[in-house]
């Protein structure tokens, strides 16, 4: 199917909805996508281009986060940013984009020692660890910007993020809601990447 979509001139963008069922190898499938149609930005070629600061496609969720940060009107240059999570989908590209915006970036994760210490010094926090209410409000520096990428379904069926929103909102200058914060931005950036791909193929 991927080979067929790669070959079809009328197809501008391909994305694979993750996670895949266990019997499918997501890495080999993502690697097979034509990099010029990889609108999620997950192909190794596109990840490499991003690392060099010359992206073809910026992964949608980190791109959406950067747009949200731009709308705070606060310069990231020289700010301390902590990314909680190290996935290839969000954490790693997020750290690269923040570094390219001249922030000083620390990547933490669920096994980081003294996570509270790192967060207490952060001007910007991007939480993408995949654990409900993992980041507590009392860990956050007053006035920090908090971007909650997580989306977790609780036992009662409700959704929550990786940040304990109620307590964090008492300290943060800006905080994104879950749902309704980063999610819609991810979709918007996917559409933007698809338009970019279409324009490049028409050039």
How would you summarize the topology of this molecule?
Blueprint: H1 2-7, H2 26-32, H3 44-51, H4 60-70, E1 80-84, H5 91-100, E2 104-108, H6 115-120, E3 124-127, E4 145-148, E5 152-153, E6 159-160, H7 165-168, E7 174-175, H8 182-202
Parallel strand pairs: 1-2, 1-3, 3-4, 4-7
Antiparallel strand pairs: 5-6
State the end-to-end distance: 26 Å
Instruction: Kindly provide the radius of gyration, computed on alpha-carbon positions and rounded to a whole number of angstroms.
Output: 18 Å
Shape: globular
Helix content: 25-40%
Order of helices and strands: HHHHEHEHEEEEHEH
Largest sheet: 5 strands, parallel
Mean model confidence by pLDDT: 96
- Give the number of helices: 8
Strand content: 5-15%
- Total beta strand runs: 7
| Alpha-beta classification | alpha/beta
Give the strand line-up of the largest sheet: 2-1-3-4-7
- Ranges where pLDDT stays below 50 over 5 or more residues in a row are none
Q: What can you tell me about this protein's structure?
A:
The chain is built from 8 helices and 7 strands. It is an alpha/beta fold and 203 residues long. Strands 2-1-3-4-7 form a 5-stranded parallel β-sheet. Strands 5-6 form a two-stranded antiparallel sheet. The radius of gyration is 18 Å and the shape is globular. Helix 4 runs parallel beside helix 5 (91-100).
Summarize the structure.
The chain is of the alpha/beta class and 203 residues long.
């Amino acid at each position: 199917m991927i080979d067929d979509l790669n070959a079809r001139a009328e197809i501008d963008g391909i994305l694979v909805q993750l996670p895949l069922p266990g019997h499918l190898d997501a890495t080999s499938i993502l690697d097979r996508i034509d990099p010029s149609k990889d609108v999620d930005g997950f192909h190794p070629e596109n990840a490499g281009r991003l690392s060099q600061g010359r992206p073809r496609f910026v992964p949608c969720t980190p791109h959406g986060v950067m747009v949200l940060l731009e709308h705070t009107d606060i310069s990231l240059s020289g700010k301390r940013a902590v990314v909680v999570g190290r996935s290839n989908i969000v954490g790693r590209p997020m750290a690269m984009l923040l570094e390219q915006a001249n922030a000083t970036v620390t990547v933490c994760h669920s096994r980081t020692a003294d996570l509270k210490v790192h967060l207490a010094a952060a001007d910007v926090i991007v939480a993408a660890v995949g654990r409900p209410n993992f980041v507590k409000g009392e860990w956050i520096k007053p006035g920090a910007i908090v971007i909650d990428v997580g989306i977790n379904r609780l036992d009662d069926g409700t959704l929550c993020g990786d940040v304990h929103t109620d307590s964090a909102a008492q300290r943060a200058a800006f905080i994104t809601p879950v749902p309704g914060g980063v999610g819609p931005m991810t979709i918007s950036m996917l559409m933007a990447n698809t338009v970019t791909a279409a324009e490049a193929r028409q050039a």
